[in-house]
Each structure stands twice: as structure tokens, then as C-alpha cells.
Amino acid sequence: MSVRRPSSDDPVLAALLARCTFPAGGPAGPLVVAVSGGADSVALLALAVATGRPTSAVHVDHGLRPGSAAEAAPVADLCAAWGARFGSRTVQVADGPDLESRARAARHAVLPADALLGHTADDQAETVLLRLLRGTGPSGLAAMRPDRHPLLRLRRADTEALCAHLGVVPFEDPSNRDPRFTRNRVRHEVLPLLADVAGRDPVPLLARLADLAGEQADVLEEVALMVDPTDAPVLATLPPALAATAVRAWWRTTTGSPHPPDAAAVARVLAVADGTSTGCDVVAGWSVRRTGGRLRLVGPRGAPPPDAPERDEVAQG
Asked: Under CATH, which number does the domain 11-120+155-177 receive?
């Protein structure tokens, strides 16, 4: 069966596009998508092309399997057939502990900052459970947000069906069956057990929980924008959830890092705010000091100044 070109005139693609959340940008606004060659990312590429907007695909080779570099070729062929630009990146990730998170960090470090990712509602459900198992708070339950994940309203079965509809045989990553990875055990053991116990599919319930948590987190962040996090007496009197949100927003603005400190680090900052201590280490060489009722973030040597804009991880090529 030959590969069909994606088009919004195709009723199957049109129905799926109606459930996607691609970022605004008008008919000429370009889209950048990360494509591994699996069903989810191939569906993302197809749906991006079907929007009619200029589309670029980026494939990342982690070097974890012999011959993994060749896995980019089918993606390049699809891009050529569908009129999308293609680029590849190579990272080096050694096998060993915490492989999933290290591979993810390496991948994100070389993807363009605006690259879209092909995660579905099934991935969202898995992420919610994983975060629960790691002791996340309410904001962590928001999991992945639709700004970079336009397929969160689709199911894995939708992406697989779309590939079949277009005549594409997606790549099946053998690591997706490896039980040493916690996500795989959640996918193949925990979710089926929950479905059996509940007598219903838990994925929509967990995805809905993520949506609700995200909406509440957005409201809290809006309120936190009205807080001066450097005013120690004010910060110390706020409800803990609001104070923590203000501290994380202050951290992102000051350091330029999109990754906020964890709950323990935030608790240390709030202890400085209420006078329990005069200063503390936060993370990555940054510390907080209190002087005359005001807090200030002190960066490590060589850190960018507080007003330095956050830079893209890599330039688009």
C-alpha cells in the first residue's frame, strides 16, 4: 500500500484535527514537530502537514541501539513524500540508572524550543500516575500542557489508526516493552489493572484530572503575579500554595530556567521569608538571602543577570 499525503480534505484527518490544539500562527505560521518514527509522532507529523502550515520534523538519535542512526531514514522519506522539512540531531546517552529521564533531558536539549511533541491522552494518564508515585503536589498533576502537546485529546489507538489509514508502518521502539522502565510497567500493568478494578477505562478520568489541575494551577499563577516575592513579611503570611507559586515564578523570571525548584527547596526559601533562617541554598548553585525584610536570589559565578532573557535551547535549522 502506497503512502497517502495528509490533507484536511480527508475526513479522517479533519475529524482528528478538530480535536488537536496546534498553536495559533495563521496559515503561514510554521510548525516544528519532534518525530521518532513511532505511531504517535508520525501522526503528529501528518496532522501538522494537514493544517497546511509549513512543517519541519526533527528526529533525535540517542545512540542506544546498534544501527539506531538508520531509524531517521524512514522519517526523512516521509517528510520528502509529505512536503515537510527534515532535520536530525544526535545525542549520546549511556545505558544505566535513570535512563528514561536522562534520554528525555538529552532529547529536549537539542530540540528547538518550540518543537511540538506527539503525546496522547494515554501518555498523559501515565504521566499523572508517575507523578503521583513520585509524590507530586496539585500543580504537578497538571502533567503535560497542550501548548507543546497538541495531541492530548487523541488516544494512542487514534494515532495507530491514522498511520494505517495513510499507509505508514510506524517504527516500534523495543524499549517500550522493557519492564525495567517504570512508565512501561504503568502502561502495561498498572493501567490495565485499574481498568479491571474500576470496570471502566481510567485514561479519560486521569486526563480530565490533569486538565482540572492545569486550570487551577493557571488561576493560582495569575494571582501569584500580584505578589512581590522579595517582600519577606508578605510572603510569610500568604497561604502556602500561593507563596510556593510566587517563589517558583520568581525563580523562573530571575534565573531564566523553565524548571522550578522542588518542594523541599521552596520550603527552604519560605523558611527564610518567615525568619526561621537568614539564607539558604536553593538549587544549581543559587541561594536566597534576606536583608532588611527583603529577599534576593544570588546566582553562582557566571550565572546570567536576573534580567537576561531566556534563550532557546538550540536554533532552528
From this structure: 3.40.50.620
